[in-house]
Amino acid sequence: MFGHVMEDLTPEEIAAASQLYAPLADRVRELVAATVLTEVPAPDVAKAIQLIEEATALLGTKAVEGSFGVRWTPDGKRRTWGNAIVGLRNPIAPPLDIRQRGDLTYADVVIGPQYEGPPTLVHGGIIAAMLDQVLGDAAVNAGVPGMTGTLRIRYNRGTPLGPIRVQSAVDRVEGVKTFVSGQVIVDDAVTVEAEGIFILPKAVRDLGDNPPPGILAPGD
Ligand SMILES: CCCCC/C=C\C/C=C\C/C=C\C/C=C\CCCC(=O)SCCNC(=O)CCNC(=O)[C@H](O)C(C)(C)COP(=O)(O)OP(=O)(O)OC[C@H]1O[C@@H](n2cnc3c(N)ncnc32)[C@H](O)[C@@H]1OP(=O)(O)O
């Protein structure tokens, strides 16, 4: 299926790739925050630009074309390393380390200054994106995954930059639709509430009872 790439990698090879690329994304994420906040003199900014250009050119000498897609192994393990919210290789991702405890799907994350909207508060669009992902993962974890069809968000109060929890749980399933709700929590108070409808797309439904292994499995 388009964007899904099968790779016959061993767990050791996947672990090695993770150890290689996670620190790269971490350093670039730090670079983004430093870029927002720096107050060094102009010559130092010029020098930083040059170093960044060199690093970008080096990384670009061999690269995937287009997007990373979803990579999976024959045993059904999936890697969503390019994902904008959870991608291990994606410095744009906060990143969310989404976990599961019972029926609850959640992520504890520290939101940095590069996600600011109103002064000192997390941008509402970033909050929506995180909720989209965490609600979607609740559907995946419950074995009833789907694409986001509808996402409703109610911002009750501002969410300060810093440590937050994003959490979700499946409310009910109606046919191909999974209804999920979730919240953003700061210091035990709910700042944002969300409700989503996740729909198993017709293209996947048409695969019948035997979709390719991994297509409906949780990613990491
Ligand atoms: C193509 C391969 C995709 C493979 C993925 C498969 C499953 C997902 C698996 C894993 C997902 C993993 C992680 C996901 C976690 C987070 C990721 C973040 C989520 C996103 O970032 S995701 C990007 C944003 N998202 C989109 O880009 C969606 C664009 N859109 C579409 O892809 C279609 O529009 C779709 C699929 C939504 C529906 O298409 P469709 O053809 O399957 O729908 P159809 O007409 O058959 O309706 C069937 C029933 O859903 C009702 N219905 C239809 N549309 C609705 C809507 N919008 N809201 C509420 N209900 C709706 C009908 O009323 C009917 O209801 P009823 O059965 O009661 O009559």
UniProtKB/TrEMBL annotation:
<keyword id="KW-0963">Cytoplasm</keyword>
<keyword id="KW-0378">Hydrolase</keyword>
<dbReference type="GO" id="GO:0006631">
    <property type="term" value="P:fatty acid metabolic process"/>
</dbReference>
<keyword id="KW-0966">Cell projection</keyword>
<dbReference type="Pfam" id="PF03061">
    <property type="entry name" value="4HBT"/>
</dbReference>
<dbReference type="InterPro" id="IPR006683">
    <property type="entry name" value="Thioestr_dom"/>
</dbReference>
<feature type="domain" description="Thioesterase">
    <location>
        <begin position="122"/>
        <end position="189"/>
    </location>
</feature>
<keyword id="KW-0809">Transit peptide</keyword>
<keyword id="KW-0276">Fatty acid metabolism</keyword>
<comment type="similarity">
    <text>Belongs to the THEM4/THEM5 thioesterase family.</text>
</comment>
<keyword id="KW-1003">Cell membrane</keyword>
<protein>
    <recommendedName>
        <fullName>Acyl-coenzyme A thioesterase THEM4</fullName>
        <ecNumber>3.1.2.2</ecNumber>
    </recommendedName>
</protein>
<keyword id="KW-0053">Apoptosis</keyword>
<dbReference type="GO" id="GO:0016787">
    <property type="term" value="F:hydrolase activity"/>
</dbReference>
<dbReference type="InterPro" id="IPR029069">
    <property type="entry name" value="HotDog_dom_sf"/>
</dbReference>
<keyword id="KW-0443">Lipid metabolism</keyword>
<dbReference type="InterPro" id="IPR052365">
    <property type="entry name" value="THEM4/THEM5_acyl-CoA_thioest"/>
</dbReference>
<dbReference type="GO" id="GO:0005737">
    <property type="term" value="C:cytoplasm"/>
</dbReference>
<dbReference type="GO" id="GO:0016020">
    <property type="term" value="C:membrane"/>
</dbReference>
<keyword id="KW-0472">Membrane</keyword>
